[in-house]
Structures
1.
Amino acid sequence: MTNRRVLFIVPPTGMYIREDRCQTPIEEMKTIALRPPIDLLYSAGSTEAAGCECKLVDYPGERRSWGHLEADIREFKPQVMMMSITTPSLHKDVEAATLAKSIDPTIVTVAKGAHFNVLDREAMELYPQLDCVVRGEYEHTAAELGIGKPLAEILGITWRNAEGVITRNADRPFIDNLDSIPFPARHLAHNELYFRPDTMEMQTTIVTNRGCPHSCIYCLAPLVSGKKNRYRSTDNVVAELEECVNRYGIRSFLFRSDLFTQKKEWVIELCKKIVDRGLKIEWCSNSRVDCINAEMLEWMKKAGCWIIAYGVESGNDEMLKNIEKKATVEQARTAVRLTREAGVKSSIYLLMGLPWDTPETIEDNVKLAREIQPDFLEIFYTYPFPGTKLRQIAIEKGLLKEGDIPEDAYSNPAMGGLYLTKEQFSKLRKKSLRRIYLQPSYIWRTLRGARSPKELANYVKYGALTLKDLFSGRARNSEALKAKATE
């Protein structure tokens, strides 16, 4: 042991998925469940392997406050504190560094998140309470920070010296051999906090591969993980699954990747090994609509895959070209059909708030969703993340000012478009979801798909919450009109 202590935290600033390429505030997203802070768990695993004592706290997930964070800092006395940051919550998140410095100015305050891959120097200038920010992959960086390696010698960080001079060290290369990374330090987490929303069973995240060769204009994956899809060996993935089952009693998994199904042979090999080991698990994954086929789906179903999330994004082929998706509406139809035929559920994501959106393109989204009838659906507002082509376009077209960091994201529009305002987007999203969710066939299929009374009760619960949210704006508008009429 080095006798050095490292505190890894999710700041007490709200419930977000904090996975760099996925930075979703989930409190208003009824179909999205809280996930374990897998990036911090990986960082803690590598830092423990280097000999440090680690503590990890997900303050929002554990319903803990700023007062609890203060108490933990005073009691644990860390030499290093690493924070998981999202772009929308950045300004609030860094207050954790302010608190740490007020307790012990010698604590090295570290922030990680995709934001710093691009706006690292700007963040360091804006927030003097930060000692350094991490760029790129974080496991080796976290371990080197933990053992006290001089900041000037650590790749992939931007840091501040004692005189306040900010230095941007050379980039850290992507890790080619993902099997070399220690498993996430799940023993530091309250694993019971993270569950499947349909069954309430404990669920954790398994990172199967990193990187995506595509260049969708809104997506952070190429920036965060590179354009080469780096796969773990199937034996290494199965070993982690077995650890989760045998040590932690977890049998439900989210296979997180930038593109899980790109390599058909790898997917089928993994599925065969899950079956051969008799793991009896359930899991979900993502896929593009243009790289799925019946054979792969058959093996995924055998190995426990119960749902696949597809980034359909739009029901309009011209919009798909604008966002450089390199997929078609017809491929979306085929993917959902094949998935249903394989006995696997489908979840699709649609985008709203693109610069070119019109009432007609949004209507195309609704028509497609009503036609293909996925099992689950969510409409996300696009977010102009630093480093993406979408952000450049938004600035060039005057939809966003240089330096603007919108706090609204995903469930609220971050910006207006060329033809629709933020207020119009908000109304159209609720209207669109009502038209999709309230189809009798959709309601019947959802309820019929429940496999137990408990699961049925959860579908009813989340459905009621969703409908309450979708009609709340209409009620408030009605009340406002009544008040106006009586003035």
2.
Amino acid sequence: MLKEILSISGKPGLYKLVSQGKNMLVVESLIDGKRVPAYSRDKVVSLSDIAMFTETEEVPLRQVLKNIHTKENGKQCGVDSKADNAVLRNYMSEVLPNYDRDRVYPSDMRKLFSWYNILVNCGLTDFEVSVAEETQTAE
């Protein structure tokens, strides 16, 4: 599921991949449903390709989102993305206790919590790896 959800640098929110053209992707905003092109010059990243730094390894974003989902019982994140840095760090340590405090910035946490809320609002809460995605990753 996260493979089709994209973050586009310079554009707020998350986008779902709708179609591919020759030099662009057609994406749909998860916030307002508008379709827009994402060109090859735009930095487009799939959420399945993102990981969070911990003190020992990198944890896939999928696992971090799953931890938040479990903590919040499927509801929206209890921390406002505009909260104080200390509040963000405290919540992050509850969700991912061994996150790397030197490399995970408050801005990253704000983006993570914002993305989680967008996904919950859209009903996209299946953060498990499907068998098809697992096979593609292995290849």
3.
Amino acid sequence: MPLQFGINLWPHQWQDVSRIEELGYDSAWTSEHIFFYFPTFDALTSLAAMAARTSRIRLGTAVLLLPLRPAALAAKEIASVDNISGGRVILGAGIGGEYTKEFEAVGVPVRERGARADEALRVLKLLYTQDNVQFEGLFTRLDGVTLAPKPVQPGGPPIWVAGRSEAAMRRAGRLGDGYLPYLFSPERFRDGLAKARGYAEKAGRDPSAITGAIYQFICLADNYNEAKSLAAADLSRRYNQPFEKIVDRYVVMGKAKDCAARLATFADAGVEHFILVPIVPAPADFMPHVEAYAAEVLPKMRA
């Protein structure tokens, strides 16, 4: 399968998705938090709006914070957007935890987020494949209910499990269709994907069916040092912690040829689908950089 590339949009730029489709990207994505260090929209609401402006491109959540919703509500919302988009949704699912106040706000103990996500993934599969579903879990009770309409995609949208921990790798292998980490080096990605596929094999699933994807920060600039300074400042602000000493490891940056060369090392490590997350000097630079990737970086990768 050829490498695929998507763009993660800033919340207020959902309307630019039509241009991203025109540029030949394979997917467009949006992130979410209820409360965080910077403004965000609800991911599924954004995808529905993006679906109305596109016809071909896949649409994904990077990521949906699954434990913040009751599992049945999440199933309904995801199925609705898959229908609205004509079956183009990819569900990137994570457990969050970086901002505990959003868990407090919806009455979900942050320590339960992993168990809630595991149960929700099972509930999604049941509701998307069966009628008159009976289920008794720790957090969900279904007494002979049928979800209608079901997603356009048989069995529901592919689920790419996000996270950097061993638990996320295990969740991806046992319950997911893909593994989607962030802030990984190529070496760590190779190891994480191998572990996720190993868990899939232990669960009696086809390990090769686990898609390798990555949420990848990218900073295009006239030189490496300029990109490094910009990326360190952006990520330190974005995650409310210092990034100066680790930005080289996790961010693709520099001139177009430098970015392509670094992306190639991730592809060699097993990445099949890149979700590019632009780091730019100002919001007005976002789409010019996305256009520059399409013109200068992606052709080198696809060649």
4.
Amino acid sequence: MMRIRPFIEESLGFAYHSLVSNRLRTFLSVLGIAVGIFAIISVYALVDSLERSIRNSVQGLGSDIVYVQKWPWGGGGGEYPWWKYFQRPETEYREYVQLAQRMERTSGIAAVMGLRPTLEAGSNSVENAQMRGVTEHYATLWKLKLEQGRAFSTTEARSGRPVCVLGASIAEGLFPTSVAVGKSISSLGRTFTVIGLLEREGASLIGESHDEQVLVPAAYLRTLVDERNSGGSNIMVQAAPGQTISELKSEIRGYMRSIRKLKPQAEDNFALNESSSLSAGLDQMFGIIGLAGTIIGGFSVLVGGFGIANIMFVSVRERTGQIGIQKALGARKSFVLAQFLVESVLLSLIGGLIGLMGVGLLVLAARHFTEFDVAMTWLNALQGLGISAVIGLLAGVVPAYIGARLDPVEAIRVNT
């Protein structure tokens, strides 16, 4: 152990002296690696942030919830036969009622129907707003949090009272300077009393943020419009404790086929969707994106590695006489080899650190100018340093090996 420490200290000393005495050359070599690390780690950080945001949104759908809908999510792979799904009927409120009566093992069931009307409150209005007709368990299934007021009661939901709960952005648009709860809004020729305000959720990459929505009882909304022409209608069913998703889907499929009076040989004219189907697609998608980012950023790092290798060849040639003297005084090949490898790796690590600092500045700028949650994780930083060290090691192996094999007599003679 006592012999290794002086060995490392001397190697670092030689490397430091070489880097400081050739500042311009060091700067150019470091710049190449810095640009490469900046490129590849920026891609990793952006892809990781995008994946984290999308997966969080998907988790919000509920891993134990099945969605009965007209359209399947992804279509099960291969070609997506949209023309067949287009002919399917939308889910209806009466189907929700019948399904709720038949489902014995469930933690909750809710119906959803959607419209995009104009909302008005005094002189303020919000056009093309997302109005959702929902039932009493909807807020529980989505785990919605209220900032003010309350959600629908069971009586209000089932009797169809003209009440509503506003998302944060809708409330800001209709009541920019006053409290929304207790006020009234107008839409579809009717007046709704605001009984609650949802906490702000922020943007969602899968389009399910409640900030832009207004929730009303589905039993009331269906009296104003034809629910068969509404958009995005579905029935949400949550599995009971101990019940698997496959068991739940099998039970729902049997009841829905009975409710829609489908013949035994007929195909389902509804889709049973779950979040795991989206997660499987995300694994494949982000695997491809990550591979593409590695290839694209890898070229930048590779160019920086060639720059360091070139500089190391020059360094070996300039220090030929010094190597000859060291070997003549008894230095081993491993000592000479270590000098140049340490210099190469140190050079690459400095470039990597500068590249990571650039990524950090990019992340701060992205957070300041956009609402997207971008972050550089510790894993990204370790990846950057690891790639830098490997590139430095590979770039310095051949020059260091050439230097270590120099004959001391020939090396001293060449230098003189």
